[in-house]
Amino acid sequence: MIAQLDEARAEQAEASKAIGRAGAEERPALIEAAQQYKERVAALEEERDRVVADHEAAFARIPNLPHPDAPDGQEGEGTVVRTFGTPPELDDPKDHVELLEAADALDLARAAKVSGARFAYLKGEGALLEFALVRYAVDVAMRHGHVPVIPPVLVREEAMYGTGFLPTDEQQLFRTRDDELYLVGTSEVPLAGLHMEELLDPDQLPLRYVGYSPCFRREAGAHGKDTRGILRVHQFEKVELFSFVHPDESSDEHERILAIEEEVFGALEIHAQVVDIPVGDLGASAARKFDIEAWLPGQQAYREVTSCSNTTDYQSRRLRTRMRVEQGPNLLVHTLNGTALAVQRAIIALVEQHQRSDGTVAVPSALQPYLGREVLFA
After folding, report:
1. Active site (annotated) includes residue 232
2. Of 72, 103, 106, nearest in space to 282 by CA
3. Tens-place pLDDT, residues 113-169
4. Any catalytic annotation for residue 304?
5. Which of 31, 89, 185, 321 lies in disulfide reach of 217, CB 3.0 to 4.6 Å?
6. 107 and 203 share one domain
7. How far apart are CA 371 and CA 378, in angstroms?
8. Closest of 233, 211, 189, 215 to residue 137, by C-alpha
9. Is 70 within the bounds of a domain?
């Protein structure tokens, strides 16, 4: 089609030149012929634009190629790799809503009046618990060389597309009415965009960040699923790990980020399992993904509290983030992300696993310096 368009433009140009060389008698016929060439060029341009748009739309929906070691299967069919922590022994466990509301640390009813369903107020010791968890997780990440970042949470379409959340996850996103901006569902988006359209020197890598931000998700299609309390809400806060690495190092970096996540929850004395996510549940950008699922006594079930993905060069190709190579073409870097701590889900796991029969909650020793107390809700 491009070749046809180039040929038509050449014929149009030649026809225009012929008009200038022609005599008065020949000119009307040549002008009519030139008009036909002009219309043909316009029609070919319109058709080319349509085909390019169709091609780009189709290409945008192609997911990353899964890692050969990722297990086969669909959502819920992941492989448990290992467990850590000691399962709590509780005779009559309460769920997080009972524990937090009894201590006036959570208010769902007033949040529903102000904002609607799936919003919450964290109050008093509930709010203090969030502050303590965030700083604790950031400190763990910093010990492993991650630079702290407070990113913007309103981003352009290019950033959402670049990280793979558009077009496939558009139904999960909140978009502003008067500006072409989206509220992020994770600070992975602005962290990935931090080096958009940049050519990095090899000695700059790896680049490692830890971001903290509020996150916003519609949770479309999740009606009736885990809707009690603060497990699945429209607004939550998260501490996010993000790395830019040389392509040869992304598998090792993936294991490294996963180890940080395990350290965060292991030191909080949370019993959990590591799950290798199957191909059918990887989403658009991940080539391989591990989740940590904490045991929630109130539900008598394991629920996801962190996720850790190697997106290889899927995001960097869309964001045009490359590294300079002395010989040969420049390389696309590999990007990885992992949840160091999703605040609301971490609170659920902590209060449910460390609850005591009198309604108080024991504070794990790793968190006591940040919270300034050994017991919550006393």
Report:
1. yes
2. 72
3. 999 999 999 999 999 999 999 999 999 999 999 999 999 999 999 999 999 999 888
4. yes
5. 185
6. yes
7. 14
8. 211
9. no
